[in-house]
Amino acid sequence: MKIRIPVVLLLAASLCAPAAHALKLNFDVDKLKEVTGKFKMLKEPSEADEIEIGKGVAANLLGAAPPVNDPALQAYVNRIGQWVAMHSERPDLPWHFAVLDTNGVNAFATPGGYVFITRGMLLRMRDEAELAGVLAHEVSHVVEKHALKTMRKGALAGLAGDALSSYAEKKGKEEFTKIVSAGTEIYARGLDKEDEFAADRAGVVIAARAGYDPYGLPSVLQTLASINPQDDAVALMFKTHPDSGTRLELVSNSMEGQIDQFMDYPRVESRFSSMIKSHIAGYKPVQK
Ligand SMILES: [Zn+2]
């Protein structure tokens, strides 16, 4: 199975090439030097800091939407998530997976390995390969440190980057609070478009390594593309992610010519639907 992966990656890499050629070299060189210098000065947080920051941001996000009160369902999603993460480039992070009690259709991850998927998203899925695909997309964001990178870039716009740098040196409480609140902000604004596309490409590779039909993630993107964008349930996800149709097209292109290899990879439909039917379909959210 491992022999196939570089092919997918190669295809993905070749996809990016034309964009670089199309780039117009029209910028102020001095300004660029100043900005890159500042960016380089920011110290990269250690893995322990990364986990600590991610935990703080996760706690904030859980304050907005608590986990579904169903241990069996949480254990199921955790098992799939851990299995998927084990096939990523950072299997040793302390990974956590949780289903959030909201109708909103969404999934996201904070630095250090905290991955969340909503009840609304699970209800629109058809099988375990789709779940594994979405979790693998989130795992890729963590592996590639996309949220941390966005926070560091925030320094250029005067956000939390300086705090991030001084936290890495001094571990100050004030800096930590600043980082966590700026980090939480990212989940309302979204990551870079390119990071989303990259997480789609890497997500299908991780799902395949974990033994799932890698077309699970593209199937979810197809479902998302068919949802009316006026639907409140998708408002936040559509605001923070590139267009689902474009994502589907790009990830499908990166997988082109690979279909035969994945023909026998399972979708695991029955285990998934019996879990969802017994634990989510009849689930009544706690009235507030
Ligand atoms: Zn994403």
Automatic annotation (TrEMBL):
GO cellular component: membrane
Domain Peptidase M48: 72-251
Keywords for the protein's UniProt record, in alphabetical order: Hydrolase, Metal-binding, Metalloprotease, Protease, Signal, Zinc
Cofactor list: Zn(2+)
Cofactor notes: Binds 1 zinc ion per subunit.
GO molecular function: metal ion binding; metalloendopeptidase activity
Signal sequence residues: 1-22
One example of a Gene Ontology biological process annotation: proteolysis involved in protein catabolic process
Pfam families (UniProt xref): Peptidase_M48
Top-level taxon: Bacteria
Keyword Methyltransferase: no
TM region(s), chain numbering: none
Alphabetical list of InterPro entries matching this protein: Mito/Outer_Membr_Metalloprot (IPR051156), Peptidase_M48 (IPR001915)
Alphabetized PANTHER family for the sequence: METALLOENDOPEPTIDASE OMA1 (PTHR22726), METALLOENDOPEPTIDASE OMA1, MITOCHONDRIAL (PTHR22726:SF1)
Similarity-based family: Belongs to the peptidase M48 family.
Protein name: Peptidase M48 domain-containing protein
Naturally occurring in which organism (per UniProt): Candidatus Muproteobacteria bacterium RIFCSPLOWO2_01_FULL_60_18
